[in-house]
Amino acid sequence: MRHLTPRLPPAAWLLVLACASSASAQAPDPRGAQVFADRCAPCHGADGRGGERGPDIVSTPTALRRAPADIARVIREGVPGGGMPPVALAPADVPLVASHVRGLVDAGRRRPTWPRVRATTREGASVEGLVLAEAADDLHLLTMDGRLRRLRRRDVTTLEALGRVEMPVLAPRSVVSPPSPDDWATYNGDPGGNRHSPHRQIAPDNVARLQSAWTFAVPGIRALRATPLVVDGVMYVGAPNEVVALDARTGRSLWHYRRPRTPGVIGDAGAAVNRGVALAGDRLFMVTDDARLVALHRATGQVLWEVVMADFRAHYGATSAPLVVGDLVVSGISGGDEGVRGFVAAYDVATGARRWQFWTVPAPGEPGAETWKGRAIDHGCAATWLTGSYDARLDTLYWTAGNPCPDYNGDEREGDNLWSNAVLALDPQTGVRRWHFQFTPHDLNDWDAVQTVVVADTTFRGQSRPLLLQANRNGFFYVFDRSSGALLLAEPFIRGLNWATGVGPDGRPRRVPGMVPTVGGTTVCPSVEGATNWMSPAFNPDTGLFYVQALERCSVFLKSSRWFEAGESFYGGSTTRVPSEVGGKVLRALDIQTGRIVWELPQIGAGDTWGGVLSTASGLVFVGEDDGAFTAVEARTGRRLWRYAANAPWRGSPMTYVVDGRQYVAVAGGGVVYAFALPEG
Length: 681
Known about the structure:
Blueprint: E1 13-14, H1 30-44, H2 61-64, H3 68-77, H4 93-110, E2 114-121, E3 126-134, E4 138-143, E5 148-152, E6 156-165, E7 169-170, E8 196-197, E9 211-217, E10 229-231, E11 234-239, E12 242-247, E13 253-258, H5 267-270, E14 278-280, E15 283-287, E16 292-297, E17 303-308, E18 323-325, E19 328-332, E20 343-348, E21 354-359, E22 389-391, E23 396-400, E24 422-426, E25 433-438, E26 454-460, E27 463-471, E28 476-481, E29 486-492, E30 500-503, E31 509-511, E32 522-524, E33 538-540, E34 545-551, E35 555-559, E36 573-577, E37 585-591, E38 597-602, E39 613-616, E40 620-624, E41 630-634, E42 640-644, E43 655-659, E44 662-669, E45 672-677
């Protein structure tokens, strides 16, 4: 790689040195390039980046993850339904063309360059850096000190071009600045898990004027599940094995990090599920489908370090946003229906070194193993696949665990099956368990406890208490004293619940006899999806209401004796929908003092949305509805005040942020990020 001019401070930018090709590397066969030029370039362009009749085949996420053998198969078989017929090449030419196409992909990845400029502002300041993005009214520079800076063109008097250079590797900074209240710096906005914003600019009396500010479609992504983060005017959007950085004012792309999907990953991670990223200082953290934790430099997307959390070949994966707690980044794993042994672990922010690990399935002989009688403990699951919550006041980490395996057959796991279906209160520095609560002992319905737990400091029945709130997948809404784990309230928040009559003073559900999976099938409510799921809730301390997307659905649960097999899920049965059932999703506001439903908003439409809610101090709740609309309702009554017909399949939960004094609300739907704001002026 070329060096930047000696003018740059050597301590500011560390340059990447290009490696020379190995002398032993085999030269490419020119026949492949010639056949490509004759048969493929007329459609796809000579560089493979798209032509008049064919798409880009070298720089898309799909192209990046295709091996030569995959490319050869596409050449032979075409893309059925995608407009590309099989290409009639001589059999000997197919691997040569595939190798040439892969070479174009790799060449594009090795040699990107950026314009380097020097700008002089009206105040006489000189700013030098690489142009990451530009438009008619502004440009974004990576400056000499490794920061992102936006310049308005009207404030620039001269702009001097200094050629093109490759992206430098930035030295990480050790200084971590606290996020601004205007930012949305963690998955739920608040480390305590409460998606409640203090911002009041968008309010019930003006929300009808809310309008689209910008949209951004992430290339090649069909279903974003992430909540974007915003820090210092830059938005970071996570996708499966990808992160894109955007100008939070305009949605303009600044950089895009991609890595190929991993062949052989099973479960949700293999199905392209990812819920976002985490930030600490100049580091941005993401998980990958093959259960790696990766630290990127947030100014450029360059990899600073990566660690393997678990072996994906043992059915592990990772799907959710990590959580930063001090100098640690904490992550769980997926594979909760695939027979893994669940855990949550903490890693050093600076180096990636693992500092502690808590197993959610005990090993034989360890405390809790007595609650697993039978063979299933070897593949017990209890995965930790949703972002936890952190209580700064009590310095406690709350992480939730999923269902035991096999999901629907408990014959080989008699007992409560600790620590599945539980919330775990952990010392964030050591991972030592302080207390736990198991919502559904010996779960037989796949009712993971991995719904967000919300930290709340408020009055409960006349007494100021540190609370922990959760609407659980099993159909009950829970309130705890989070300092001790004492259960204060457990009430149903769905009307159709039929598997239990309530929760006893000891915290154990009072089960209805016979409501278990059978070979012939048993109808149980809530459904396998639960009374709610991973869609984010919110709590407004002013209204005293907890807002949650509830599911009034049932499933027929069937039991089987099929045992664990490598490469397969470990359900021990199956489920079916109830044939006569229609709809069933309802936005509900719960009174945390009693669990009573104060108001509800049925979700009407053909969609099957999984987005959560956002609450604001101005008295609004934002939600994506089943008809594809993005909606704002009044927090005290549930009355609809504004709707935007995005016609989107919502999978991500909304968030809000402020840049340059203007409040935005953003949400991901399909492969698109939508941002809304009030009209300027």
